[in-house]
Here is the input.
Amino acid sequence: MDTTHNTHRPKRPLPKDAQLRRQNEYLSALHETTLGLIDKLDKKELLEAILERATSLTGTQHGFIYLLEPGEAEMQMRVGMGFFRGQLGRCVHIGEGIGGRVWETEAPIVVNEYSSWPWRLKDPALDRLHSVVGIPLRSARGMQGAIGLARVEEGPPFGQEDVFLLNRFADLALVALEKARLYADVRRQLAERERAEAVLRESENRYRSLLESSPDPIVVYNMAGMAEYVNPAFERTFGWSREELLGRRIDFVPPENWEETQAAIESMLGGNTIQLFETRRLTKDGRVLDIQISSTLYLDLGGVVAGNIVILRDISDQKRTQKELARYRDGLEVLVAERTAELKKSHLQLEQEVEDRKRIESRLRSQEKIREAQSRHLAEVNTALKVLLQQREQDRRELEERVLSNVGKLISPYLERLKRSRLSPSQEALVHTLEANLDNIVSPFSSRLSSPEANLTPMEIRVAGLVKEGRTNKEIADLLCVSKNTVMYHRYHMRKKLGIKGRKINLRSYLTTFNK
Here is the structure.
């Protein structure tokens, strides 16, 4: 496929279900268009219906069909929609524009930006075109033309899916062209035959009473079977002159046709009129002609049967034409049967494809239900995990508070008492080491209180921990072995460092926010 690439944002692939729906639309449209070919016979009407369906499915309103007549050196746009309705009649030579380029390569062409395409037609009116796609119409008899679509507005270019779709519509267009051609040939031949018969009937009516000017051979017999009159047409047709025939029997009935001729004569003598009796007669030079005879008795002035008038018509050419028409009609019926069988086969294939798409869609819907159930299960698991995490966080805060409370209540007071007792240097070092290790243990739980923003001393941290437990100033003083004023001093400095001095904020409530 000859494709010209320009800068365009690529098409995003459609989801699976959207692709299936779109392919079903394509198949249904091809099916409906195929059925429409059965009833339509006019070539232009057929091609317009195909082009209209192709443009509607590819999301554009602009399309064209070029046709190439046998032996012609240029293609002409015969059908156009949208932008190309005003381009009808445009002709291109091989290699010119989309149509000529498809003609030359006999392959599909996709152009992303027509204005910068090297083979574009030099017509400013065509500068409005952006993406264009062209598909060849090629049959066993050679190139028939090209079908194409275009986008006047900017947008995504045509893709492989559009080329595939247009190829299917191109096949329908070829069937339509062949059907219209066959129908036109038959109609033309039938019209020629009808005109010929009309001329013959007109001639018969006009010259029936004017024997001399009649174009058909006419002979008048008496009751004894002798020729009393022959017209010039008879002389010309059979080759005998009047002098050779008048007063004699005309011996020009072939032996194999004498029996039917005798039966016709007896029927006429019985009062019946012979009309367009087909038989054969010999000419003077021995040729056998297919003849159509009309004969009737005529009366003399006394009302007595005097003889009969025979009008002969040479239908040799007509017989040959009928045989040719019959042979052609038989061939046409075979061809129509073959085309009908092909259409039925295509119809069955389309139906099978539609059924396959339906089964795939059913499986996709089942898988979608499974995915939805899995999603609901995952959502429930996620909710349970969130509840567990919240419970774990709550347990962690409670553990922190218990550890800090126990250290402040059960350990820190006794360390303070040890530090104030009389200790040896080694014992004092051990107490300091114990205090440092204890601070390291509880430091993760009190990290927020000892953060640079709080900037609390170790003693203030201990006081803060007891305040959070709800201890009174006296209880804190007893536990830490300090005075009540010292505790109030530390509380004052903690409010100042925490930025809540002079504000109506409960210290205990504020401290509890540090571990949340």
Summary: Confidence is low (pLDDT under 50) at residues 5-11.
